[in-house]
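User: Second chain of the day. Same drill as before.
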Amino acid sequence: MFTGSVWDQQAIEWLVNRNSSFGSIGSYSKGNIASINIEDGDTLFKLLTELLIPELMSANLWNKQ
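Assistant: Same format as last time:
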């Protein structure tokens, strides 16, 4: 889950109520199983991370096929 949305809390409640596992990218979210923290002041790093992490995850899944 990429944090920073006004809907974060509702999404977290939905996931927790269903005993779902999730990770957060951005800032810590209560209930996550993994977290990649990004400091608030680094806009370029945030932008690049939002692109890079899903690409790496996709490549990993693709290679497992």
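The two ends are 24 Å apart (CA to CA).

User: Great, on to the next one.
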